[in-house]
């Protein structure tokens, strides 16, 4: 199954200082048919104005991944971390038994980031934090792993989930074949450009959700960047 969800079908929440596009039910947006995709519970595409941000708040029993595309975010948490995550960097926070944090754009430039929440593969984990600079924004015409819990890879952020997040910067005319299994799920979110996925056209901010396929054949019909997430299909494999 290949399902395309257009950019216009994302939920848009505007708060003046924050423009957020929800790919799944979140906050005051609820759709019983759009709560999660495998263990992926939240995927928010956030634009945060200069000198603004999220005050301290709490989380538990989630793996939270932040991918900064433009600008930088200042992060502080109850674990004692006080860091800055810049464009091209990835952060993972295991909230486990509970953690509080704040996120601010403390610069004079706008901030663009993706934040994703995953159900962890076990409950009651000790809260932890990881941040890594990964050279994923250059034109490499390949899938670059950013976060994984499936296998040991160098220079990749670890997550307590049987999932992997990839980023690709694909030049016009270039192709990628991603081998998968019918028992897995996939999600592609187009950051820029235009793709054909298994022959189906998708454009900027469109998403593709796949299941019961053995390969995703991705071709760029324009210079494109996108996120690809490989996910377990059943809860027993989270």
TrEMBL record:
Domain Pirin N-terminal, first and last residues per copy: 11-117
Residue intervals passing through the bilayer: none
The family this protein is said to belong to: Belongs to the pirin family.
Domain Quercetin 2,3-dioxygenase C-terminal cupin, first and last residues per copy: 154-231
Protein's name according to its UniProt entry: Pirin family protein
PANTHER family in alphabetical order: QUERCETIN 2,3-DIOXYGENASE
Top-level taxonomic group: Bacteria
Organism encoding this protein: Rufibacter sediminis
């Amino acid at each position: 199954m290949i399902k395309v969800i257009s950019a216009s079908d994302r939920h848009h929440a505007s708060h003046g200082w924050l423009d957020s596009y929800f790919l799944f039910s979140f906050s005051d947006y609820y759709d019983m048919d759009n709560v999660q995709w495998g263990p992926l519970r939240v995927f928010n595409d956030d634009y945060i104005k200069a000198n603004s941000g999220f005050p301290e708040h709490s989380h538990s029993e989630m793996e939270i991944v932040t991918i900064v595309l433009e600008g930088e975010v200042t992060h502080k948490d109850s674990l004692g971390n006080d860091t800055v995550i810049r464009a091209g960097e990835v952060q993972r926070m295991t909230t486990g038994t509970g953690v509080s944090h704040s996120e601010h754009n403390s610069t004079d430039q706008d901030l663009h980031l993706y934040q994703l929440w995953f159900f962890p593969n076990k409950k009651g984990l000790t809260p932890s934090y990881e941040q890594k600079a990964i050279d994923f924004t250059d034109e490499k015409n390949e899938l670059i792993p950013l976060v994984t819990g499936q296998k040991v890879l160098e220079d990749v952020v670890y997550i307590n989930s049987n999932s992997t997040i990839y980023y690709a910067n694909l030049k016009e005319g270039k192709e990628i074949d991603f081998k998968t299994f019918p028992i897995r799920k996939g999600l592609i979110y187009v950051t820029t450009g235009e793709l054909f996925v298994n022959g189906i056209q998708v454009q900027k901010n469109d998403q593709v959700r796949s299941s019961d396929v053995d390969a995703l054949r991705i071709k760029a019909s324009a210079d494109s960047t996108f996120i690809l997430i490989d996910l377990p299909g059943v809860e027993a494999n989270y």
